[in-house]
Structure formats: C-alpha cells, structure tokens
Amino acid sequence: MSDILTSLSDHILRIQINRPQKKNALTPAMYDALREAIESANADSDIHAIFLTGSEDSFCAGNDLSSFLLEPESSAAAQFIRAIAAAKVPIVAAVNGVAVGVGVTMLLHCDLVYAAAGAKFNFAFIDLGLLPEAASTYLLPRMLGYVRAAELLMLGEAFSAEKAHDCGIVNQVLDPEDLEALAWSKAEQLAAKPPEALRQTKMLLRRGKALVVEDTIDIELEMIGQRLVSDEVRGIMQAFFSRRGTV
Questions:
Q1: Into how many domains does the chain fold?
Q2: Nearest partner of 112 among 214, 220, 205, 216, judged by Cα
Q3: What is d(CA 221, CA 231) in angstroms, rounded to the nearest whole number?
Q4: CATH for 78
Q5: Would residue 181 count as lying in a domain?
Q6: How would you write the pLDDT of the chain (247 residues) with one tens digit per residue?
Q7: Which domain, by its residues, includes 141?
Q8: Which of 115, 128, 162, 210 lies deepest, with the highest CB count within 10 Å?
C-alpha cells in the first residue's frame, strides 16, 4: 500500500499520509507524491479543495532522518515546501495526532486547520542541529510576536493542541472521534463555493506576504543544505541512530 493515499470525492482531493509504522515520517518519495498531488489539484478545475490528514496516532512526525542522513542533498522536501506554500487550492488539514518539524510548518500554509485534543506539536529542529523551514522563521514572529515564536522555535518543546489553537496555528480543537467529520464538512463547505472566486480570494489573502515567504523559504533551504553536511549535524544524527541501534 502506498505511503501517500489520494482520492477524489465531491470536488475534494483527499490526501492521507499513510506510514503509521514510522509515525508518518516523510521520505523523498513521499514528498514527491505530496507535491505531485498539490500540483495536480492546482491544474484541475474540478478540484475545489484539498483535505490533508495522517493515519492512526500520527499526522506527520517530520522527516525520515535515515533518508536525510543518506540523501542530504535531496530536493524533494524543498520542492514540496515550495508547492504547499504556493498552492492555489484551499487546503483543510485534520491533525489527528503527533505533528513534528515539517509536520507543523506545513500547517502554516494550510487555510483551515483542525486538531484532535491530545495531538502534540513540536518544532524539533535545533536539537538536531537543523533550522526551521517553510518560512516559519518569517511567519511565526508575525503571527505570535517575537518572544513567543522564539520560545517555540528555539526551545523546541512539545506543545498541546490547545496551545496550537492559542497561537493561531489551529482553528479548532476537537474530540478525536469528531475530528475527521468536522474537518471534512469544512472542506465540503469550501468545495460548494464558486471555485474561481475561492482561489482568487486565497491568492489575495496571501498576496501581501507571498514574495517574502518565497524569499524566506529560499534562504532557509540554502542554510539547511549547509547544515545537513556539517560535522555538527552528522554527529547528532549518528548519535541519534546509534542510540536506536539503526543507521
């Protein structure tokens, strides 16, 4: 079974990250599949909304670190980040469980985000010797103010769905059994609206910061590329896998 599942229903493209045995950690192939799904939605006027979710107890645990160690120069993650930041179709995310690293930063580019009570979030970059991405270093200070953004990005502590809601990352926190139905109903509401007006409204909402977001993503990715081949990061990664008895 594929690690990324897609289906189309009632003008909604459903994308499910489906690698629960690895907490839905993303490999280059999964990044490619996510990017291709978003790009296909952009090009298809029959798709009015995207619904994005995870599986079992995880939304997305970030990057598959073994892939990062073996393929530090892979461009798949960068291409996905650029694609979701530039998505023309509204994206509704249902965060069903743990969201770490890119599992959180991708939410900054979704239009509506709903989370299950008990979901945990973590911008876990610095402890791995890495840097935040997806323009989070630009977006979060403007959403939260500098000190609250610094707390999330520099300390890298896990935080609750309720705090994610307080920070404006999440629209609403729901009982786990209600999450998918409520989030899907919001995607249905969007899909029932005039699609071109919806796409143009999204474009206008994001227009003022689009160029800065794009530029920030480029700067972040350039610096992350340098970090990935640094002795500091490789040492941290090797220690991480040694503790788990894997490479």
A1: 1
A2: 205
A3: 18
A4: 3.90.226.10
A5: no
A6: 699 999 999 999 999 999 999 999 999 999 999 999 999 999 999 999 999 999 999 999 999 988 766 666 569 999 999 999 999 999 999 999 999 999 999 999 999 999 999 999 999 999 999 999 999 999 999 999 999 999 999 999 999 999 999 999 999 999 999 999 999 999 999 999 999 999 999 999 999 999 999 999 999 999 998 998 899 988 898 888 777 654 3
A7: 4-176+200-242
A8: 115
